[in-house]
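EI: anyone free to look at a 206-residue chain?
SC: sure, send it
EI:
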Amino acid sequence: MKRMLKELLEEKAPGPFPSFAIYHIIKALELIAKEHVGRGKLSEQLSIGEGATRTLLNRLRDAGLIVISKKGSSFTAKGDGLWKELESIIAKKTCLQRNELVLTKCNVAVQLRGLGNKVRTGLEQRDAAIMAGAKGATTLVLKKGKLVMPNMSEDVSHDYPLVFKQLTSLLDLKENDVIVIGGADSLDKAEYGAYAAAWTLIENNR
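SC: here you go
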């Protein structure tokens, strides 16, 4: 799965250098999984130009992941399998209200199954989110039944009760799960920040 996703970003000749990132690919797969989606709507939803969207769709098609018809794009069996594998790791995505921990206007949390051992300080996730256009990212891990934030809190339920209440009401957390929260002034940048942060953990998983 990781190899296939990374190959979609590689420079190929002849053809344009891709002007999209891994988080655009993940979002595109998410949208295609929900319904047949045309290029125009996909371009709008991804907040990238139609040329970049065309290149992205062509690469998904050439990789055997989608078919493109008048109704729009839809998964092949291979594409459906790839999405299900990715979805088994990205358990849920949800929006969060502003609270005592995340103060940005828009906040998107992505839950990752079983990747808690891949988290170090959370700085790698924060930097990836910023590179994606977000203002930052917060990383939390469920360890021994407690939600912790590396170098910040050994018990989020005690130190940040509002965010703890939000997260536990919206997510079905299991031991060693990770939550990455992307924050930005717009919803798409918050979402891309969360996906970019999540990818740093997925990519490093063996």
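EI: The mean pLDDT is 94.
SC: 👍
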